[in-house]
Amino acid sequence: MSDQHSHQNFETRAIHAGNTADPLTGAVVPPIYQVSTYKQDGVGGLRGGYEYSRSANPTRTALEENLAALEGGRRGLAFASGLAAEDCLLRTLLAPGDHVVIPNDAYGGTFRLFAKVVERWGVDFSVANTSDIDSVRDAVNDRTKLIWVETPSNPLLGITDIEAVAGVARQAGVKLVVDNTFASPYLQQPLALGADVVVHSLTKYMGGHSDVVGGALVTADEALGEELAYHQNAMGAVAGPFDSWIVLRGIKTLAVRMDRHSENATKIVEMLTQHPKVTQVLYPGLPEHPGHEVAAKQMRSFGGMISFRVEGGEAAAVEVCNRAQLFTLGESLGGVESLIEHPGRMTHASVAGSALEVPADLVRLSVGIENVEDLLADLRQALG
Ligand SMILES: Cc1ncc(COP(=O)(O)O)c(C=O)c1O
Question: Catalytic residue at 179?
């Protein structure tokens, strides 16, 4: 993060970091530099430091500066998707023969990347319950290069103590990577708790309007940031100018959106915990959630994601999803509109039969920022 923004509060940084007025026109919002190349004043005479938009583009730079400022990191990098960011990170940090520790609850696509892509290149992994620090410590061996954490996790809303795992990582001399997609930097700041790299699917809360796919990495360290920037250009899965611009726009309202997501989710959890058809509610804001105390310590509030289990197994869970009307049946999360899905058959179908398999009676909600009374009425009718 540049010194210019380090003294500012989150909401101010979200609006101003990277968002300097256009030097040519004074436009208060960075323009969409929809351009691939830049005129040089003589060979090597770059006007603004830009030569080709895969290497760097001013709109993407604006977003990358903003991301670094929001996570309190040294370097932000924006990619074409969350998985593109993860791929770049893994192929930068790992080599054949290396070992990684992954959580027993994570986004299915992240697991698929480890199990079906990275493993083929000679990198093996162990699955740990990252909510249990001993399980993480036991999973580390002398070939381990990184520990991967997702907190809150997708879709079981498990909580990992980032500071405690950072201690294990430091002791073992390995990198700690935290997927901060569910919390967003407004609710949780993994780098300040000792993580080396933060990963984001910008598609979710950062974009916030279900209208863009994007990903990001933010590093605590300048040198690792440089190395990743080199690989970002070498691999090429960069965020385009329009996608960068629309995420930058979404981020300006991140703080107010997250406050409302959390507020609405709290009221929905209250209703679900009392509903006779609901057998379990998974939400870190609940005092009986095993990660509640850690979540209260490391998160500003508990976020907009809720999972719950219903009486009647898979058929009943699918029925609830199908009956919802205001909650749109769809994958993804983090938009202003509420979504409902069945992880076992939708977002997490790729983990079926693995250590990450999710319960068949599970329903996941991404609670939007609509009026909560309308959301409650819809869920009541969907539960029947
Ligand atoms: C927690 C988490 N991380 C990473 C990703 C991957 O991001 P993307 O879909 O933008 O590639 C997702 C997508 O759902 C996710 O939920």
Answer: yes
Q: How much distance in Å is there from the Cα of 55 to the middle of ligand 1?
A: 24
> Is the model's pTM score more than 0.90?
yes
Residue 260's contacts (CB-CB under 8 Å, 6 or more residues apart) are 369
Helix (H, G, I), strand (E, B) or coil at 92: helix
State yes or no: is 39 an active-site residue. Answer: no
- Is the beta carbon of 181 within 6 A of some atom in ligand 1? yes
Q: Which CATH number does the domain 3-251 belong to among 3.30.390.50, 3.40.640.10, 3.40.50.300, 3.30.1330.10? A: 3.40.640.10
- Residues 88-133 have pLDDT tens digits of 999 999 999 999 999 998 899 999 999 999 999 999 999 999 999 9
188 CB near ligand 1 (under 6 Å): no
- Is the C-beta atom of 203 inside 6 A of ligand 1? yes
Domain locations in the chain as residue ranges: 3-251, 255-383
CATH class of 255-383: alpha beta
Between the CA of 40 and the centroid of ligand 1 the distance, in Å, is 38
